[in-house]
# Entry
Amino acid sequence: MRKLKRYASLYWLFLLQRFKVLMEYRVNFLIGASSTIFIQAASLMTVWVVMGQVPSLNGWTIDEIFMIYGLLTLAKSINHMFADNLWTLGHEYIRPGGFDRFLVRPINPLFHLLADRFCHDGIGNFLVGLVLVMRGFENLSIPWSLGNIAYLVLAVLAGGSIFIALNLITCVTSFWIMNSVPVTLAVFQTHEFTKYPLNIYGKMIGVAMTWLIPYGLASYYPASYLLGRDVGYMAWAMVPVAAVLLAAGYRFWLFGLKHYGGTGS
Amino acid sequence: MRSLRRYWRVYSAFAANAVKLMMAYSVWFWVELLGQIFMLIIFVYFWKAVYANTETVSGMRAAETLNYILIAQIVAPLVRWSLILDIGGAIRQGTVAIEFTRPVDFQARWYVEWTSQMLFQAIRLALPLGAVAMICFGLRLPADPAVWGYFIVSFLLGNAVLFCFDWAFACLAFYTTEAWGLHILREGVAAFFSGALLPLQMLPGWLQKGAAFLPFGQALNAPVSILTGITPVSQAPAVIGTQLIWLVGLFLFSRFFFGVASRKVTVQGG
# Structure
């Protein structure tokens, strides 16, 4: 418990430092924070144009699709804001040799890596997701009950953890191959599937995005639950899956760390 | 004649180098291919679900739309240029100063490099993607050589248009000294208005008018519409004429603006 408090206050200090740096370049901060909105706008406008002409996509209305899309974007934004530095482990830390710095400090190296750079680009994603989900609650008259809000928070946190855990697992490969970005990207880009209802795809893709690379647990199932579509216990599957993946990711990280020998630079 | 030979020698060396640079990062190629195959799958299922309840969307039938989307997604990675980031990077790091002292035209050199990389990408990425689309998703390609001829001309012209636009747009980095935001803004607007995600013909009237004022459709929607037959062969010369007007206008503007903006070089003490 004391350890947790220490790390929380440490994270706060790191964040403060980071914001001091970001505020030196205010325009860049604003551009970065809003950048992801432009990228999302293209997909959202496509859905909007198409869905304006057909009543539903395999039984999903435009509001419901935006709900799925919004939940996924929220989960993704958690990863984007707080764990984006995982991407850079290979080319920013290990290859130049800066990673050794983490190993001689009296804090957990993984914590240090994550805390080193809060990524403001994720704020845009967070806002897009938030607007889409709030819009969904309004348009589909989902009650803003305490239970629903708690479920929403849980789903987003668990979904974000699934994103973080999968990135962690793939990024650890940089302990061996120096640059893990292509590996991480190969897995990460499959999340595109889960922006839309999983039941429009063939069964194989649905199963793969639920059990193999479970991004679907962050969008399709929580959205179904909030919309009152019965998905049974699958509405809660993101919690244990996120926990297991995080634990596995951390184990793998420790394993990689043991094999880390520095680059000699 | 002699100077023509010199041009050829100089610029073909730049072209060869650009391609070699790309080949050095082969892992990226596989990841990009995989990602693009994912996009093909997503779009095919998305549009199949759209057409499950309706015969036509904006007058376009399912087969027509699917064919358009498949080709658009095969062509899209070819026109996903990061020119703005590269020029912005050159400005930021100060290497742009070296470019000014070189005895070759800065813009021409970059155009040659970019085009050669794009053509290389077309062989390396578009061919396998096309094969996947034909085998798995029933992509149909026209047999008429005239259509192919118009497509290729329109594709090259459209890309030259985009190159000139990006060039002029990237010159804003001389003032902002920051290219990332410009790049992202351009990516987002282009993703939608190039017609990579849906045929521009499907947009509501006011958005179509907006799209016509932007150059992005020239690089993707125009050639892909010719190849899929959405634009009949008889109208192809008119499309190419429009592209030529775009090209001349943007070429002149990009030269002019570069001349003005480059006087504003700020070297960041790096």
